[in-house]
User: What shape does this take?
Amino acid sequence: MKAVVKTNPGIGAEFLDVENPKPGKRDAIVKVQATSICGTDVHIYEWNEWAQKRIGKDKLPQVLGHEVAGEVCEVGSDVKKIKTGDYVSAETHIYDPRDLTALLGQFHIGERMKILGVDTDGAFAEYIKVPEAVCWINDRAIPPEIASIQEPLGNATYAVLGEDNDVAGRSMAVIGDGPIALLAIGVARTCGATPIFHIGKYDFNMEIGKKMGSDHQLYANKEFDRVGYIRDHTGGYGVDIVLDMAGSPQALEEGFKVLRRGGRFTAFGIPAKSPLMIDYADGIVFKGAQVHGISGRKIFDTWYRVRNLLASGRLDVSPVITHLFTLEDYRKGFDLMMERPRKSAKIVLFPDKDEFERAKERRL
Ligand code: ZN
Assistant: This one.
């Protein structure tokens, strides 16, 4: 089969013929219909410090990608939950049932957890091997290019809803303008958060944020009193919920400042450098703030909610999908993902040319 393979410890990847995956007893083989590019794929493509440490050159060659939608075409002998012909996506956190967190129902943060496309061969290929335990059966009302982005949409949904799902009528600030921040704005709007403040940098993405439902657009890279503005527009209190999806020192500083007393600060952005200074006393302790880290999605509570939001048509994520390419054209996708100022959000790839044509038609 054809696949986008990381072959060398340096920038780039190659489009190669590789052997088709074979299922283990509890695996499914999925024929990939759509697969989307994630920031994690860009890290591996660039072979940055994180990728060098997390994957390492000894594990190469490796097929990239982890966001996927496709059809099950073969299953292992012990597979029970799914069958050939099922239309599935994959939860990328391959949990280990022995972990304490799994026993407690927190499957997404296990100690022995592996990540699809990081610890295993990925989805930028005609076929991918997925453990049955992390296969999620999609609603057929959701087209492949949308079903593929359910994984990052799940991050966004979990970040917005938190542990208590209490967002209706609550004010929210979303900091960052990457695809997950834009998706979060859509989920927040659909679930009733209001008003929604969006702090970002790039016009292209701020515009998408507006389409997804942000009420106020504030530029992080312009001289402006963002904290004062948000306080002024929330009765002087600050927002109920802050989603940090940037992870920069400025985002953290402003985020804790605009959070109201007793509010929730959701941490998703990954700082370039860690540890990072925050105002612990005034930002968290005296404020009685809750801080909630997001690593992945609740398995499978988030998936269930995402499916219902998408299949109903209530949540329209199509503005966040800015480009479609054939898998062969993966380089165009990666170039766009790395371009600054940003000129793209979510980019979806298609191994099959007919599927690519159908997806383009659906966009019209
Ligand atoms: Zn991803």
